[in-house]
Amino acid sequence: MDNNPIWQSASANQLDLARVVVERTVMARVYHNALYLNEDGDVYRDQLFHGHINKLAKVVTPNHRDLRISKVYHYECSWSWAQTELAVISAYKTPRDKL
C-alpha cells in the first residue's frame, strides 16, 4: 500500500484502517481452516475447555485462599470485567482484535 499510487493521498489513519480491514478480511476467509484443522475435534476441545473455564470461574475468586489477595484490594480488582472479556474473546477473529 505504501508504494501504490492509489494510496499516496491517504492519511496515516486511513492507511491503518485499511490494513485492519485487510487483516480482518483475510482472517475471516482462513479462520476456520487455520484454527480448526481437525474440524469437529477442535471444536469439541474448545467447548470442553470453555466448560472447564466456566467451572474454574465459580471457584477462583478474589476470596480464594491460595491467591492470598488482601481484602483491601477485593473491591478494586476487575474480576467480573476480565471474565466477561474472556467469555467473548472467541467472537474476535484477528490477533489484533483479541488483544
From TrEMBL:
One of its GO terms (molecular function) is small GTPase binding. GO terms for biological process: vesicle-mediated transport. One of its GO terms (cellular component) is cytosol. Residues 43-99 form the VPS9 domain. It holds the Pfam family DUF5601. PROSITE patterns: VPS9. This is GTPase-activating protein and VPS9 domain-containing protein 1-like. It comes from Temnothorax curvispinosus. The lineage of its organism: Eukaryota, Metazoa, Ecdysozoa, Arthropoda, Hexapoda.
